[in-house]
Amino acid sequence: MMSRAQDWAWVQQDCFTSQGMVSVCERLPTHLECFQDSCYQLFYARFYDWQTEDKCNATGGGHVLEINSAEERDFVKGFLNTAPPRRKRLGEFPLTSVWLGATDSAVEGEFRWLSDNSEIDFQDWARGQPANIASNRMSQDCVALDLFQDWRWDDVSCHNTNALVCEIKNVNGSSG
């Protein structure tokens, strides 16, 4: 199991302590896994793009999911495919799309990472993407992973709402 240390870094922690089974596990995110030097936390609630960096920053100083290699892409696909299903209650939606921390809002067609405005080296666009098909006069300057396109990248309107994966530096090193 994973939990946050006081310095907001993710560390390994067993759910059993000298006091027996504690509520630490109950406070953990619904779906959290680590791979190489990052931990990934899934939020099922729907967020607008402009809410995502703030939410991730408040969640231990992380940032919106960034995929930088084929290995990380494969991990993320498995992570999303094995996410526990959510019951449909008010505010909960099936997991069909997740924000990726990329945008081309500064220069159309030049996608950059939100966290540091760096160029994106690895890309995994769905067939025909990025298409920048404007709907209701809203351009597609944001990027989401789409379940129905095998979690490949799709440029979408920043006014869409999607689930969120925050990526947080794993100070304990490699896992996965």
TrEMBL record:
<dbReference type="InterPro" id="IPR050111">
    <property type="entry name" value="C-type_lectin/snaclec_domain"/>
</dbReference>
<dbReference type="InterPro" id="IPR018378">
    <property type="entry name" value="C-type_lectin_CS"/>
</dbReference>
<dbReference type="InterPro" id="IPR001304">
    <property type="entry name" value="C-type_lectin-like"/>
</dbReference>
<keyword id="KW-1015">Disulfide bond</keyword>
<dbReference type="InterPro" id="IPR016187">
    <property type="entry name" value="CTDL_fold"/>
</dbReference>
<dbReference type="Pfam" id="PF00059">
    <property type="entry name" value="Lectin_C"/>
</dbReference>
<feature type="domain" description="C-type lectin">
    <location>
        <begin position="35"/>
        <end position="167"/>
    </location>
</feature>
<protein>
    <submittedName>
        <fullName>C-type lectin</fullName>
    </submittedName>
</protein>
<dbReference type="InterPro" id="IPR016186">
    <property type="entry name" value="C-type_lectin-like/link_sf"/>
</dbReference>
